[in-house]
Design a protein that fits this description.
Helix content is 28%, strand content 15%. The protein is of the alpha/beta class and 336 residues long. It folds into three domains: 160 residues, Lysozyme-like, CATH 3.40.80.10; 60 residues, SH3 type barrels; 80 residues, no CATH class. β3 and β4 form a beta hairpin. α3 crosses α6. It is elongated and about 85 Å long. Bound molecules: zinc ion (ZN).
Length: 336
């Protein structure tokens, strides 16, 4: 297992650590191209820490030792892509893979795999792992691109996907706790936000996560989804159940409050607090004062709702209430 050690470039060094905040979207792999003895991760981290004379910087440097050095926080820009203000510099986390000839390249790559997997897990915003070559055409990472040291770029990505690159002992995949019979063919399912890899090993892009899809086919611990035509592990899926219709009882109970919270996109807890984000959203919708509180004995918001739904206007919610009944009817139809 690797350990990430912070040796951050001083903030005063604006040249290589500009301090520009961003949310990372990709991971870029480099090789140092320095085969000199001792040109390891610590040496590169020190170079950055002491002020690299080149206008170049990167986030992490990895070698065959378990210590990986972090020079720039992940949410800050580093200048390593050679694409100016392009997406490489502005939105990527840059990793330098050391190639010093006194180091073990295979181990170094395995450590890199471990770091990449850690970052993919830490930042759901990251959708791709790419070569420096992608950003400006440079032949970098040289050995991974040519495969001359025994590991090709494709094999590197496979190690990232399978997760068997980092540790010295092969990792046992987590036990699948979701029985397959929970999923039926033709059923609507949602891909969990926590899902990272397809059953076939490729990374699941961020835009796929949280999507709903239909089960087309089933196998041992995976199902084939119709919309994306991909096999997804059952542990990464949940069944989407149609929301039960609200009872039209005129009472503002937890189920009605939850349905309103879902409709207005506020936190769903089934409770109206004082003040309440839900009430605030409803006040905005109805064009009344937005204080988040249903005032008593008369609420202008309730009165506005009663006028809108053409129920008797008294500015209060009775138990049961005609205006709540109308709200429930409309919630069941999906449009207020
Ligand atoms: Zn590079």
């Amino acid at each position: 297992m690797v350990r990430i050690i912070e040796m951050l470039i001083p903030k005063s060094n604006k040249k290589t650590r500009p301090g520009i905040k961003r949310v990372p979207r990709s991971i870029t792999i480099h090789e140092t191209d320095n085969e000199g003895i001792g040109a390891n991760a610590l040496a590169h981290a020190k170079l950055q820490y002491n002020g690299n004379i080149r206008l170049a910087s990167w986030h992490l440097q990895v070698d065959d030792e378990p210590e990986v050095y972090l020079s720039i926080p992940y949410d800050e820009v580093a200048y390593a892509a050679g694409d100016g203000k392009g997406p490489g510099n502005m939105y990527s986390i840059h990793i330098e893979v050391c190639v010093n000839r006194d180091g073990n390249y295979f181990k170094t790559v395995n450590h890199t795999v471990e770091v990449v997997r850690y970052l993919l897990n830490k930042f759901p915003s990251i959708t791709e792992v790419v070569q420096h070559h992608k950003w400006n055409g440079k032949n970098c990472p040289r050995y991974l691109r040519s495969g001359t040291k025994g590991i090709s770029w494709q094999q590197f990505l496979q190690k990232v996907a399978k997760g068997n690159g980092g540790s010295d002992t092969p990792q046992v995949p987590p036990k699948d706790k979701t029985p397959n019979h929970l999923f039926k063919i033709g059923e609507k399912v949602r891909i969990k936000k926590s899902a990272t890899y397809y059953a076939t090993g490729e990374g699941i892009p961020a835009y796929i996560k949280g999507r709903t899809d239909i089960v087309l086919q089933k196998s041992a611990n995976r199902v084939l989804l119709k919309g994306i035509n991909s096999w997804v592990k059952t542990e990464d899926l949940e069944v989407v159940r149609a929301a039960a219709a609200l009872a039209i009882d005129g009472y503002m109970g937890p189920a009605t409050i939850k349905a309103l919270q879902r409709y207005f996109g506020t936190p769903i807890d089934g409770v109206i607090s004082r003040p309440s984000l839900l009430i605030k959203a409803m006040q905005k919708w109805l064009g009344t004062q937005q204080d988040g509180i249903i005032s008593e004995p008369y609420s202008t918001m309730v009165a506005a709702l009663q006028r809108r739904y053409q129920t008797p206007v008294d500015g209060k919610i009775s138990r049961p209430s005609l205006v709540v009944k109308e709200l429930q009817r409309r919630l069941n139809r999906g449009k207020l």
